[in-house]
Design goal:
206 residues, alpha+beta, five-stranded antiparallel β-sheet, 35% helix, 19% strand, globular
Amino acid sequence: MSNQADLLWADLGAAIGRRIQHTAKRRRRQRLAAVSTVVVGAVTTSAIASGIASDLHLAPSDWAVLRDGSIDNGRGSYVHARRLADGTSSTFLAEHDDGLTPYEAFLLHERTLAAANATSPTAVREEPGSLCTRDQLTHAEKVSLSALAANFAPGTGFDASGAIVSDALEVAFADQPCRGLAFAGEEARHVFAGTEPATMLMPGAR
């Protein structure tokens, strides 16, 4: 286990999954990608956090670290871990995007995700196509928001809207998929749920 992981686990508490609302002044993001060892595939869910060490609550008695790493001088980091109880593997990503524009934050996420996928001990499913451009990311967020408004009341929880948004993006980008649609959908769902400010979206989607 690296020194980075040693420090991480020293500060971690006892539970997983707490979602913490942030303010526009604190734009640090934590993303959790879970890959089952039984059903191979990536499931990404966002949680807003002040940092991976203080808000990713993994008990060492429950998790074993497999590998970790970072990019951009620690601005993006990841930890591959295995749950001891059932052997399932998860990859935890932390991105500190304070001071970045929405598109720069997207690029940081994609770089962190790419680094994590390249070292993953478990097979992962990656999005097809090239990296979404600014215009494509903006369009994807607008499509997501439209789908949300047509099917849910404002403030609907993040977890309730995933399928609707995914389906809408699949239709809208059927002829030209790009890598980053999942990110766009998540951003829109968080803004719609009220767990992120609209400033996290691309300017043209607000």
